[in-house]
Specification:
With 98 residues, the chain is mostly beta strands. It has one domain: predicted glycosyltransferase like domains (Thrombin, subunit H). 0% of the residues lie in helices and 53% in strands. Strand 1 and strand 2 form a beta hairpin. The N terminus is likely disordered.
């Protein structure tokens, strides 16, 4: 008998490893730093946990891992967890190609 799997919506495997980091974004012409945790990552981006109430979808940000600040990744915000949901306080960012 042949079995089929539902297609996986992710393009690449996620690595679950909590690490401290910061998100840097320009808010109203000022650069702000938001401390956060990298909850999981892939070559395409990150899921982050922190206080991101000033960020918006589509916003350009930089993710700076605390353990390797030279490994800064330019990203854009692709989703923001909604209030009251399991993802509240989290954002998803996609790494910019380049």
């Amino acid at each position: 008998m042949r079995t089929s799997r539902a297609p996986d919506s992710r393009r690449s495997e996620r690595v679950v490893r909590t690490r401290r980091a910061s998100v840097v974004a320009t808010i109203r012409s000022q650069t702000e730093r938001f401390p956060c945790l990298i909850v999981d990552s892939s070559p395409n981006g990150f899921r982050l946990r922190g206080n991101f109430n000033k960020l918006r979808r589509g916003q350009a940000v930089e993710v700076i891992p605390e353990d390797d600040p030279l490994d800064t990744v330019s990203c854009s915000v692709v989703w923001i967890g909604t209030r009251g949901s399991k993802q509240e306080g989290e954002i998803g960012v996609q790494a910019e190609k380049g």
